[in-house]
């Protein structure tokens, strides 16, 4: 049995976790939408990573390796514990959309995606990961990661497009409440 306390990578991993813990929490929270569960996911991933640190053959990929562990922990949680999504418990919005409302719309749309598609969106646009790294983190080839990203963006466009149409209809009925996206230089998509 391997003693994780004596692993030569442990100090580097510990520093890495301290430096990036907020990023890990945000990623986990984007999956589980619950503060306690997100902290548990990060903690579980850290414990799991410490236990298998000796198996990391290429230390330069520590970040990719750990993100994969964390994403898998979140996906496992969603499969076994069900989804706790507090945003869905809020009443529907009828007022014009603020930035917070748009953010909540995006969260709801992401929650409608299958986990594999949600993962590529979160890693690409919330974590700013390059596609090659996303492929490594998710254990698929680059072309598969690109395909998932394309399908995820199409699904989000369809989901958010339906909501945008509803907003446009609401705005047409109540022009005084408009000011949401007509004032923008770029149209919402």
UniProtKB/TrEMBL annotation:
Gene Ontology terms, MF aspect: DNA binding; sigma factor activity
InterPro entries linked: RNA_pol_sigma-70-like, RNA_pol_sigma-70_dom, RNA_pol_sigma70_r2, RNA_pol_sigma70_r4_t2, RNA_pol_sigma_r2, RNA_pol_sigma_r3/r4-like, WH-like_DNA-bd_sf
Record keywords, A-Z: Sigma factor, Transcription, Transcription regulation
Ranges of residues in domain RNA polymerase sigma-70 region: 17-83
Entry's transmembrane regions: none
Residues covered by the RNA polymerase sigma factor 70 region 4 type domain: 104-156
GO biological process terms, semicolon-separated: DNA-templated transcription initiation
Family assignment from sequence similarity: Belongs to the sigma-70 factor family. ECF subfamily.
Listed PANTHER family: RNA POLYMERASE ECF-TYPE SIGMA FACTO, RNA POLYMERASE SIGMA FACTOR SIGV
Entry protein name: Sigma-70 family RNA polymerase sigma factor
